[in-house]
Amino acid sequence: MKIVAWTIRERLPNAASYRTHRITNAVAEGINSKTIPAKRRVGGYRTRENFTSAFYFYLGGLDLYSRSPPKPLQALNRIRVSND
Predict the structure, then answer these.
(1) End-to-end CA separation in angstroms for the chain
(2) What does the alpha-carbon distance between residue 8 and residue 63 come to, in Å, rounded to a whole number?
(3) Of 3, 28, 40, 54, which one has the greatest count of Cβ atoms within 10 A?
(4) Which among 43, 62, 59 is positioned nearest to 51, based on CA atoms?
(5) DSSP string spanning 48-84?
(6) Where would I find the Transposase IS204/IS1001/IS1096/IS1165 DDE domain in this sequence (predicted)?
(7) Nearest to 32 by CA among 57, 63, 59
(8) Residue ranges of the chain with pLDDT lower than 50?
(9) Residue 7 DSSP one-character state
(10) Which residues, including other chains, have CB under 8 Å from residue 57's CB and lie 6 or more apart?
């Protein structure tokens, strides 16, 4: 019973705050759930700039091994066909 009373006493201000403001930290928790694995994955860089670049790369969902660009002749043929 003491544990229940302690829990209610500790959590009551947060519940009252939610009822008046209707704001939760769900968005912050969602962002945090993505940043923690990213921090683990991009760890070990010498400078903060390198860490930040890798961090944004990971969170942006970019593909490190994207498909290669078309050969110049193929691109030129596409331009000619589309302009006709």
Answers:
(1) 82
(2) 48
(3) 54
(4) 43
(5) HHHHHHHHHHHHTT--TTPPPPPPHHHHHHHHHHHH-
(6) 1-53
(7) 59
(8) none
(9) H
(10) 64
| 61 Rama sector, left if φ>0, alpha if ψ -120 to 50, beta otherwise | left
> In this structure, what DSSP letter does residue 9 have?
H
44's tokens: 């070990």
Query: What are the angstrom distances between the C-alpha of 49 and each of 10, 42, 54, 63?
Result: 41, 12, 9, 20
pLDDT of res. 72: 62
The residues spanned by each domain of the chain are 25-63
The Cα-based distances of 4 to 1, 10, 13, 42 in angstroms read 5, 10, 15, 42
Residue 70, token pair as written in the block: 């078309």
Q: What is the pLDDT of residue 79?
A: 60
